[in-house]
Amino acid sequence: MPGYSNRRWWPFDTQQVRLAPDTAFYAWYCEYISLRASNQAHLAVARMTVHIPKLTGGGSFGVTTEVQINVRDRTVTVLDDDVTGDLKEQADWKARSVLALLLRERDRRRRGASRPRTAHELATNADQAPHSTH
Questions:
Q1: What sign does the CA torsion over 116, 120, 122, 125 have?
Q2: Which end of the chain is less crowded, N or C, counting CB atoms within 10 A of the terminal residue's CB?
Q3: Range(s) of the domain holding residue 47
Q4: What is the 3-state secondary structure (H, E, C) of the chain?
Q5: 37 in a structural domain
Q6: What percent of the chain has pLDDT over 70?
Q7: pLDDT of 61-81, one tens digit each?
Q8: Is the CB of residue 11 less than 8 Å from the CB of residue 105?
Q9: Structural domain contains residue 73
Q10: Quick check: pTM over 0.85?
């Protein structure tokens, strides 16, 4: 959407992005986080899956929830009252990781970066390597 790159708190050029948890993009579908800018300044909403272990047979059940991320106040708030205990802790941890990413990339954009770094660039320091003229 036009105009999102002009929001000084939002480092992305689109209103919504999908964040991958690793550099190879081999994650299960439920490990991605959907992140979107809210209509209110400095607020983003992250949609994510948190997991509760099955009582028998191993494995886990996934529970989808949304977390509001306030970039200005540096706070996260789980929006689903049914997500409590360990699930809330998982959602808080994931949301704080997203908040750290938003703050880091916002600062990079303010210093003149043209776009956020990709997971591959972060893992390989590809955006830090000198550019070859050959």
A1: negative
A2: C
A3: 4-118
A4: CCCHHHCCCCCCCCCEEEECCCCCCCCCHHHCEEEEECCCCCEEEEEEEEEEECCCCCCEEEEEEEEEEECCCCEEEECCCCCCHHHHHHHHHHHHHHHHHHHHHHHHHHCCCCCCCCHHHHHHCCCCCCCCCC
A5: yes
A6: 79
A7: 888 999 999 999 999 999 999
A8: yes
A9: yes
A10: no
